[in-house]
Amino acid sequence: MLTVDFDRLGLKPGDRVIDMGCGAGRHAFEMYRRGADVVAFDQDADELANVLELFGAMKEAGEVPAGAAADIKEGTALALPFADGEFDRVVCSEVLEHIWEDVTAIKELIRVLRPGGTMAITVPRWLPEVINWRLSPEYHNAEGGHIRIYTDHELVDKVTKGGRANDGTPGTAMIFEGKAHAHGLHAPYWWVKSAVGVENNDHPVVKAFHQVLVWDIMKTPGYSTVTRLAEKALNPFIGKSMVLYFRKPE
Fold first, then answer.
1. What's the burial of 57, exposed, middle or buried (CB within 10 Å: 0-12/13-18/19+)?
2. Residue 95 in contact with residue 119, Cβ under 8 Å?
3. Mean of the pLDDT values across residues 100-107?
4. Rounded CA gap, 102 and 62, in Å?
């Protein structure tokens, strides 16, 4: 279940890329399949161990082209252990809404991106997220949960201004290249969960909705045409994720 459109990002075989806050690795795996030199970065050592194991399994199964490379790195988003301009592409998906010092993280993402490189940042979309917060405080009050709801204007402003240090000094300005929305079927699923209890996975409506989403993810596109078309129609209106694309000036 991908949120980022890698064609729109401009990903090419041989690009050095970072998936910052990779989690279980969904975007890192796809970039590896496309022939990139991937670094899966996260602060969760257990998640990273699983990602590394799957990287190995993908290579062994012949799922990646010759020359593609993949590795993991543990650390914090507030101080990325990489050189300035090290990456051709940067992906940061569903991460910034968890970080108090988001402008510091944004400055770091920009710092490690080479001039002319591209970046995709995804966060929960404002309207679906507001509804979840209103329906259930436990949706966002969990440890490590969401601490803010972004509007597109706020996040675009923070990134295009390069973030701002504590002293107000601006960072490297970025060029905003457009936005998209994804996961239109997931917004109503989370509204239902928030309404009946986020942890109430045995509720019949939740279970039925979850089965549909899993079926859609696991089936090949030809078998899930109806759900894919439904999601495509819903994305502009209630897509749960907002995807922003940027380019670093040459």
1. exposed
2. no
3. 96
4. 38
Burial of 18 (0-12, 13-18, 19+ CB in 10 A): buried
Number of domains composing the chain: 1
Print the domain residue range for 10.
6-125+134-183+240-247
Altogether, the residues listed in the chain come to a count of 250
For residue 97, give Cα distances in angstroms to 3, 102, 108, 114. Answer: 15, 8, 16, 24
What letter represents residue 223's amino acid? Answer: Y
CB 16 within 8 A of CB 34: no
CATH code of residue 105? 3.40.50.150
CA atoms within 13 A on the CB side of 48: 17
Q: Which amino acid is at 192?
A: V
- Parallel/antiparallel/unpaired status of strands 87-93 and 16-20: parallel
Tokens of 210: 């979850």
What is the four-CA torsion angle of 100, 104, 106, 109, rounded to 10 degrees? -120
- pLDDT tens, residue by residue, 130-159: 999 999 999 988 888 999 999 999 999 999
Beta bridge partners of 19: 40, 91
Nearest Cα to Cα of residue 183 among 220, 138, 141, 129: 129
CA 101 to CA 106: how far, in whole Å? 9
Contact call for residues 210 and 200 (beta carbons, < 8 A): no
Rounded to two decimals, the pTM is: 0.93
Residues 17, 89 contacting (CB under 8 angstroms): yes
